[in-house]
Amino acid sequence: MSLRIHFTVEDLARTRIADGPAPCIELSTAARHLQERTHAVRLGAWRHRTLTALRPDARMVFGLMPSRGRITDFLSGVNAATPAELLEQIRSTPRGRLRASLEQTARHQPLPSWAHHLPDDPLLLRRLCDSLEAVAGHALVPHWQEVQAMAAADAAVRSRQMLNGGVETLLARLNPRRVRWQAPVLEILMASGLDADVRLAGQGMLLQPSVFAVEAPVVDLDALPQPVLTYPVARLQEGAATPLFARPPTGDRAHGGRAGAPAVDVVGSMLGHTRAAVLHTIARHPGCSTQQLAVLVGIAKASASEHATTLRNAGLIDTHRDRRTTAHVATPTGIAVLNAPSGRP
């Protein structure tokens, strides 16, 4: 049994990859994982550290974000670019939407007794939002930069898939364990066991990379401006499972993103550590945009642009422009600099 999404030519033409992680999806799926014991290797250390830090009253929000079943819409159906923006929008949810969202959830599963009073009790709603903010503050916010970096790296992978094989190749490789492309139908194995046929009617789909939605896809057919399908970022589909967020975040990335790149330390004495990190990142993620480069290295976009210009003027990278977007690639000289044992070409 599966959810079968039927694509037309118009749907394929309008299907696209989201330009970054969705805070509402990351937070809601993170909340689910905190209530389970699955994915012990990938999420065990993160889960233990987060739950240890949460006070008992901070777990109130789990009543509306259960590990199984629906997550109440006003907590998850918010378009926001950052966790802070998400939390601000949830705190200002209109009473009418709050009431409608709770009624919709109650049609499918029981609600905690206190939840029925939320639309008429501002103090109770504030307590719930405080609970959500505490969960976000320990589970997601400290790792948001890393989540963004994984999504940016995934975008480079998907761009190459599109370049080499078109949308059909992209769809076929999204999530091979759960998603199968049988033209013109996308078959999705849902955790709920849903068995249904859906036609997009020319809307296409927004394909949303996710770090916490590591297994079962999340599908929102009512999302605007088009339906949304989540899939695990490419890093989570490569080889054996490795721990995510195994250590508390440190300030390493504030110093030019030096983590995990031996060549950066070698070349850093010649180029400077931040510029070396920029070159190393471009070599590892060919075709990355300036925005993606900034996220991956952990620096401001203006700084990424400045370093890329210097590297381009030195002949170490090339930059390709298409309308308002850029794509950076390392030149053979740039690769030689990174590969030289002495740090010199």
Summarize the structure.
The protein is 45% helix and 12% strand.
Shape: globular
Instruction: Compute the number of helices.
Output: 13
**N- to C-terminal distance:** 57 Å
What structural class results from the helix and strand content? alpha/beta
Indicate the mean pLDDT: 86
Number of strands: 10
For the CA atoms, what is the radius of gyration? 22 Å
Walk me through the topology.
Elements: E1 3-6, H1 9-14, E2 16-17, H2 23-34, H3 40-53, H4 73-76, H5 83-91, H6 95-106, H7 122-139, H8 144-172, E3 179-182, E4 185-188, E5 196-199, E6 206-210, E7 219-220, E8 228-232, H9 262-271, H10 273-284, H11 290-297, H12 301-313, E9 317-322, E10 325-330, H13 332-339
Parallel strand pairs: 1-5, 2-6, 6-8
Antiparallel strand pairs: 1-4, 3-4, 7-8, 9-10
Helix pairs in contact: 5-7, 8-11, 9-10, 10-11, 10-12, 11-12
Descriptive report:
This protein has 345 residues and is an alpha/beta fold. The chain has a four-stranded mixed sheet. Strands 2-6-8-7 form a four-stranded mixed sheet. A hairpin with a 7-residue loop joins strand 7 and strand 8. About 4% of the residues have low confidence. The protein has 13 helices and ten strands.
